[in-house]
Write a structure and sequence with these properties.
The protein has 5 helices and 2 strands, in the order αααββαα. With about 120 residues, the chain is mainly alpha-helical. The protein folds into 2 domains: about 70 residues, Arc Repressor Mutant, subunit A; about 45 residues.
Length: about 120
């Protein structure tokens, strides 16, 4: 996995797990890789993955079954969507909208671009 410098690695791993949940490749109540398995997959220290899992568990996205491992919570998808919408609206949307205005993209053009994007 390629990591960016502008965000903690454990949060980038959490985002990747969130992406997998949103795409449906990780299902509610489905088992996720063990700390060691995921650490080997993404080539990081197991402590980093443990921190990721602690973060996800604290946010209600995953839960643990003693002796069995970690699982995706039934509410995970809704939690992730809510968090990402909040993040988008808090900052990224203002920048995006100001860029649209700066380059003169009209609401009709944006609607068409978005419709085309959804068709892909």
């Amino acid at each position: 996995m390629n990591f960016q410098d502008n965000k903690a690695i454990y949060l980038q791993i959490a985002d990747r797990i969130g992406d997998d949940i949103l795409r449906g490749s990780l299902q509610a109540d489905g088992k996720i890789p063990s700390v060691r398995e995921l650490a080997a997959q993404v080539e990081v220290n197991a402590n980093t993955v443990a921190r990721t899992y602690d973060h996800l568990q604290h946010n209600g996205i995953i839960y643990t079954k003693r002796g069995l491992g970690y699982f995706v919570s039934p509410e995970a998808r809704d939690i992730i969507v809510k968090q990402r919408r909040q993040l988008l609206m808090q900052g990224e949307m203002d920048y995006f909208m100001s860029q649209l205005r700066a380059v003169g993209i009209t609401p009709d053009e944006l609607r068409e671009l978005y419709s085309e994007f959804l068709k892909k």
